[in-house]
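We emphasize that the prediction below concerns an isolated chain of 223 residues; any contacts that depend on oligomerization or on bound cofactors are therefore not represented. The input was used exactly as deposited, without trimming of termini.
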Amino acid sequence: MNKTRPSASVRDGRWLVVCAWRPEMAHLRARLPDLPAHVRRRVILATVGVGLVEAAIATAHLLAKHRPDAVLLVGTAGVYPGNHPGLSLGNAAGVRRIRLLPPILAGRHAFLPAIVATESRASPALASALCLATGLPRGDVACPLAITASAKAAAAAAKLSGCALENLEAFAVARAAATAGVPFAAILGIANHVGPAGHREWKEHARAAAAVACQAVLEFLAK
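Result of the prediction step, given as a token string:
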């Protein structure tokens, strides 16, 4: 079997495509009717809510209700300081590894018990197929409880996690999918630089970044 391609049962099965909040999926909702009917019938679109807790609860509920063959998160992310080839504002990226960030970066102030899951991964076959079909780069994503808003914290988060991107929901959706035994992948549009200007940049670029991610999903589904 070609390990870079998901099995036919997944590729041609039912897809649960989720976003954190409805505007992130506006482009996908508007263009999905352009796809062939047999493709549209296999796609379920849903909103899971913002943040780790809401996204985990909603994704688990949707998985139990719809029993899809694959879960795909589409949305936006910020990029951490540093050299991340291909991961720049206005582009989109597939997700490889997802790290949960502790609530306080300095380890002497807080820690997570060893039994707490702090890492998840996209399905290698599914992530590879998505990126091969769309030409997108791949990146690792850190998921904190709250948006990182200072330059010092952004640099620390990047160093601690080893990730290039930050998003609030990817870890929750990935863990819910893993618990249900359903392949997971994500495509995130890069809307801001993580740090003090992040929120302003996100408000300016989020709609366009989400549209780029949605267009990649449409290209994948159409193949």
